[in-house]
Amino acid sequence: MNSKNMLSEKLKPLRVVNNYKFRFYRTLANDVQRWVCCKKTCNAAIKYDVNGTICEQNTTHNHEPDDLQSILRQKVSNSAKRKAVEQFSERPSKIIHSEMSSTALSVLDSNDISLIRKNIHTTRMNIYPKLPRDFPQLHATLPDVINKIQTKNNEKWIFINDVQNNIVCFTTQINLDFLKQCDSIFMDGTFSSCPFPFKQLFVIHGFKNSSYIPLFFSLLPSKCHNAYKTVLDHLKNHLCDYIPNRVFSDFEQAIHTAIKDVWPTTNLKACRFHLGQAWFRKMQSLGLAKPYMKPGEMSEYLKLFFGLPFLRPDEVDDCFVTDIMALLPPNNSKLTAFTDYILEVYVREDSRYPPSLWAECSSSITRTTNACESFHSKLNSMFYHSHPNIFIFIDALNEIQTNGYLKMNCTKNSRVNKKSIEKEHFLAQQIQYYEEGEINRLEFLKSISFKFIPTKF
C-alpha cells in the first residue's frame, strides 16, 4: 500500500494512501489512531498502532482518488507555506526549490509553481496587520504592535515612535549599554530595504575589539539635516552622558552638520570607502573609468589619488600640488577636470570636505564604513524585493538583532582576521619607512595607493 505524509491547507498532518487523503480523527484505546478520509461523505478509515503500522482499515471510497499532480501541488504548496512562516525573509523561489522532489519536478508545471508562489505570499500577508498607506495610519498601528514585538532576549524592540517627526527607532537597552562601551561609532544609510512610507534606513554601528555591531536602527522620512539631528537627539537622550570619541560617516553634509550639532566635541571623520566611491563616480562621469581599469600610465596616475587619505591632513595640499600635479600628463582635459574637482572639493582647507575630515597618517584600517555596507548588503538579501512590507522588515531587523546579541558576546574574545593584520602591518611599515626618510613622499604614496586601491565601488 502506497502511503505518504503531507500537510493540509491549514498545515495539519495528512496521510495519502493510494492517492486518497486521510486526516487524523482521534486517538482510541491503546493509543491507536483513527484516520478518516478527507471527504466528509466518505466512510473510508484507517487505524494505526503506536508503531505507525496499519492494524485495521476500510479503504472502500465513494469517490475517485485525487490525481498525482494535485496531490504533489498541495504537498509542495503547504510545506512551502509552513516554511514561509518560519523563514519569513527567505525568497519564495528558494523555498519552493527546497520543497521540490524529483517526482514533483517531473509532474508539476509553471502554472502550479505560480499558484504555490501566490499561496506563499497570501500566507505571509495573513500574519501581519493591514499595511499602512501613510504616516498617520502607521503611527496609529504601531502602539498595538510595540508591546507585542520583542527580541529573542525578551527586550522591547520598537524603542521610539516619534509621531511628530515621522521617525521610528529600533534598539534595546542591552544595545545602548554596549554602545556606551564603544570608543568609535559608524553611521550609514540604505534605501532599497527601507519600507514605505519611509525614505531611508539609518543605522548606527558600535566598534569594539575589531568588531562592528549594528546597535541602533532608524526609519527616516527624508535625508535632511532635521531628520538626522532628531534621531541623534533621541539617541543622546537614551545614552545619558555618553559622548563618542570618534564618529565615522559617509560624505553627506546633512549628517556631518547633525553630528556636530548633537556632539560638538566629537571627532568627526569621513569613511575611506565612501571617499573612494565618490572619486570613482567622478572618474566615470568624466569618461576615466576605462583608463583607470586598463594598465598603463593614466591608470597609475589615477591610482595615486587613493594614497592621499593615508597622509597627515597638513601634508595633503602640498603633496597634491608638488607631487601629483607635477606628474599630470599634458593636454588631457579629462584628467585636468578630475584634478580640479579633487582640489576644489577635497584638498583645500576651505573646501566642502577638507583633508582634516578624511586624511590620517595611521596604520589603523578601521576608518571605513565598509563593514556597514556589508551589513546593508546582507539586509537587502533578506527581502525578495525592494521596499518590503514594514512588518516583514521589522521581523527581519529582529532576526539581525538576534545575531547582534551573539556578536556582542564574541567581542570579549574577538580576533582580528589575518588579512587585516597583514594590511595594518604593511601600512605601519610603510609609514615608518616614510617618517625615517627611507622612502620619499611620492614613493610612500605609490606603495600605499597600489595596496589599498578600492576593488569595489
From TrEMBL:
This is MULE transposase domain-containing protein. The lineage of its organism: Eukaryota, Metazoa, Ecdysozoa, Arthropoda, Hexapoda. Gene3D superfamilies: 2.20.25.240. It comes from Macrosiphum euphorbiae (potato aphid). It holds the Pfam family MULE. Residues 185-275 form the MULE transposase domain.
